[in-house]
Write a structure and sequence with these properties.
- The protein has one domain: Histone deacetylase domain (Arginase, Chain A), CATH 3.40.800.20.
- The protein has an eight-stranded parallel β-sheet, with helices on both faces.
- Helix 8 links the parallel strand 7 and strand 8.
- By secondary structure, the chain is an alpha/beta fold.
- The two termini are 13 Å apart.
- The structure holds zinc ion.
- The site of zinc ion (ZN) has 7 residues, from loops.
Length: 312
């Protein structure tokens, strides 16, 4: 078994904004160039994703959602919402590959090929709800992968840790009634998308299986690490997941243009260490999925910091 693989496909560039937009192909191209410059792929495999199937998408999203996306693209529409979430004529394949990269990651960790996998794909996913594309996100990639893992491998419990600076409203909504997915999010609050208050703890069978850490602007890595060390590790220990996902956005970095947190790449190293130590101790796998991160230099350095720990 190898330590780490990165899933990537240059087809992601086909999802290109029709107007000036922070979620652009250079986000990923600059990361892959940076990793190659660091000779990171000398001992880490670079793997192509598969396209998520209609069945994979519909396990999480409504058929109205999928039809709306496909029809909008076919019809030449450029926006799926009021202004955030764009599409162009070639967006469908990158969107299906983004979701499919998490499916591929699940198969690769479940057959013991790798300890950890990082999906370096876009568009991101964690804002997409079961019936609504939202916040630059067309399909909820991590939710589609987690649902696939639950169904295909019959896993009892999956944990998702979302440290993107924005609340992962879509992932929360999709698993809000389920005890088989424990969703944990740290995020700027109040802030886009508006959800993620402390009182949102799940519903019905899912009651107690959602945990939000709303944080004020200006929060530093010290606070994040205290939460990881004192609270998240305890929750994870008690829940005892069979597989651990990270919604890895890097927009809480101090240089990010869309948010106002104060993290550095060193903080992403430390947060990754906490999660990796837990996974190693429990002998479970990590699937990390790129979400946000909009300063190209900060994003490259932060992804590199994250991957170095996953490769240890
Ligand atoms: Zn974000």
């Amino acid at each position: 078994m190898k330590n780490l693989a990165v899933i990537y496909d240059e087809l992601h560039i086909k999802h290109k904004p029709p107007f000036s937009h922070a979620e652009r192909p250079e986000r990923i191209s600059s990361v892959i160039d940076f990793l190659k410059e660091k000779k990171f792929f000398e001992n880490v495999d670079l793997i192509k994703p598969v396209e998520a199937s209609r069945e994979n998408i519909l396990a999480v999203h409504s058929s109205a959602h999928l039809d709306f996306v496909v029809d909008s693209i076919k019809g030449g529409k450029t926006l799926l919402d009021g202004g955030d979430t764009y599409v162009v004529k070639d967006s469908l394949v990158p969107a299906l590959l983004s979701a499919g990269s998490v499916i591929k990651a699940v198969d690769l960790v479940m057959d013991n090929s790798y300890n950890s996998i990082f999906s370096l794909m876009r568009p991101p996913g964690h804002h997409a709800e079961s019936s609504k594309p939202m916040g630059f996100c067309i399909f909820n990639n991590i939710a589609i992968g987690a649902k696939y893992a639950l169904d295909k491998y019959n896993l009892d419990r999956i944990a998702i840790v979302d440290w993107d600076v924005h609340h992962g409203n879509g992932t929360q909504e999709i698993f809000y009634n389920s005890s088989r997915v424990y969703f944990i999010s740290l995020h700027h609050y109040p802030f886009y998308p508006g959800t993620g208050a402390e009182g949102e703890r799940g519903n019905g069978e899912g009651s107690g299986y959602t945990l939000n850490f709303p944080l004020p602007a200006g929060t530093t890595g010290k606070t994040y690490l205290e939460i990881f060390n004192n609270k998240i590790t305890k929750v994870l220990n008690d829940y005892d997941p069979w597989l651990l996902f990270i919604s890895a956005g890097f927009d809480a970095h101090k240089d990010d243009p869309l948010a106002n947190m104060e993290l550095t790449e060193k903080d992403f190293t430390e947060m990754t260490k906490v999660v990796k130590d837990f996974a190693d101790k429990k002998n479970i796998k990590i699937i990390s999925v790129l979400e946000g991160g909009y300063n190209l230099d900060a994003l490259s350095a932060s992804v590199y910091a994250h991957l170095k720990v996953l490769n240890e």
